[in-house]
Amino acid sequence: MKVKLMRYLKPYAPYVILAPLMMLLEVFMDLMQPALMATVVDDGILGGDMNTIITTSVKMLGAALLGMAGGFGCTVFAMLASMNYSADLRGDLFRKVGHFSFKEIDRFSTGSLVTRLTNDVVQLQNLVGMALRMFIRAPLLCVGGVVMAVSISVRYGVILLVCIPVILLMVLVVYKLVFPVFASMQAKLDKLNAVLQENLAGVRVIKAYVRGGFEEKRFGDANEDLTNTALYAMNIMAVVGPIMMLLMNAVVLVVIYMGGLQIQAKEIQVGEVMAGISYMTQILFSFMMMSMMFAMVPRAKVSADRVREVLQTESAITDGEVTAEVERGEIEFDNVSFSYNDDKDDYVLKNVSLKINAGENIGLLGSTGAGKSSLVGLIPRFYDATGGRVLVDGVDVRDYKLQSLRSNIGVVLQEAVLFSGTLAENIRWGKEDASDDEVKQAAAAAQADEYISEMTDGYEAMLGQKGLTLSGGQKQRACIARALIKQPKILIMDDSTSALDLGTESRLNAAIREGYTSGTRITIAQRIASVMDTDRIYVIHDGEVAAVGTHDELLENSEIYRDIYDSQMGLGAVAGE
């Protein structure tokens, strides 16, 4: 279903109605001025009537003040409508993106979504504001000016019949030329934002590898590409202005010449010629405004299409009908296959079948890219299985309400992500109403209390964006505390202790075993030391379950497991020394 972006103006219909009415007042007053001026010149100055000069001047002043009030009112109402319109639209976009699955986010890319929520919405905001002012003013001024000019002399109508088609042709040519350019500009702005975000997120890596020069060139290339495209569009627009001014001045000269002939022939008076010049100037200026506004339309249309694309995209992950809570934490993968791009020849997981009983402590071991994270990501429905079923407590996860499912699952991802705010606020993400004691208990179990207590502000210490003030290990422990305070029925730790030393990791595992006894725990790791004490270990290799058993059983029965063990803790480690 096509989303109509103008529906966001409905709540602000009073502003949308009042803005044109105020503009109508301003235009009417502007159209009165040349006629009043003609009266001052012909009847007052040339007629020697001081009373006419004074009374008409007062009328001109009153008209100017009323026009100013109308213009001010139009600007205020247009601003209220456009600003509220963009705020509502941006809010809906943000909520829509928040409900996207990882699949949709991967499809659009983060940089593109940021551009759509910011730059594209601003383009639409500007268009709405301009439409309620200039899109109303220009046509009214044009039509009113034509009527007033023709009422003075029919010959002015002939002049307009010649120049208006030329102006309309110019506007059409400009529209055709700049529309594809603005579409290209938005795509290049997406690319620039993506480069910028990558640089800001990876600034430490860039400095560590002395890649500043390379990244500056990459940003410079994207920036130059965008600039060149923008300059091309602006060059087109730059040609239009002078041509319009030349045409307007030429028309004024023709009006003056014809007016002089008519004055000599006693057909019209000097004041009427002056009024005619003013009306012709207003008409041509209105066309100039329209040409500039139509240059905005292509860019706004591109932005509207991009915003509409986001709003019309349906998430691949939809709510099920089962509102029951996860009670036991039993997990079963029934012949599960998965591909990120729905390509049957590019499966990340292939016919995986395994069952995890409620309360078990399970380890998933495998090399990078084996499919471990992809497998557990199917449990909270970050993605849906391409084939087969994922069951929690005997119910297909696709049948659960997302809120019911995810509220009972705690996930600690590979990348430790924290948010701006205090440490306590970040830990309370797992449980908003958690008491201070609960926060400290969760932090103590995650081995985070030891470093938090040493900080000047303790749990009220403010974190920078993404927790940049903390080390990798400190961030991981804070994220683990955030998951533990939730006391979920299923706890997934996705290589979340990679930055911890073995001693800290051992204490962490002991604390979790002691304090987290009510649910199922899945630990993903590349280090055998992280999973060797679990109830059962699944060895994942090339998207399949290659072996399963306890640590001792796998040492005896699995060649892949023995190879990993030898490389980390046995023969390979010794050889590496």
Automatic annotation (TrEMBL):
Pfam families (UniProt xref): ABC_membrane, ABC_tran
Domain ABC transporter: start-end pairs: 331-567
Main location: membrane
InterPro entries referenced in this protein's UniProt entry, alphabetically: AAA+_ATPase, ABC1_TM_dom, ABC1_TM_sf, ABC_transporter-like_ATP-bd, ABC_transporter-like_CS, P-loop_NTPase, Type_1_exporter
A single GO molecular function term of this UniProt record: ATP binding
Locations listed in the record: Cell membrane
Membrane topology reported for the UniProt record: Multi-pass membrane protein
TM region positions: 12-29, 60-81, 134-152, 158-178, 236-259, 279-298
One GO CC annotation: plasma membrane
Protein name: ABC transporter-like protein
Organism: uncultured bacterium contig00025
Phylogenetic lineage: Bacteria, environmental samples
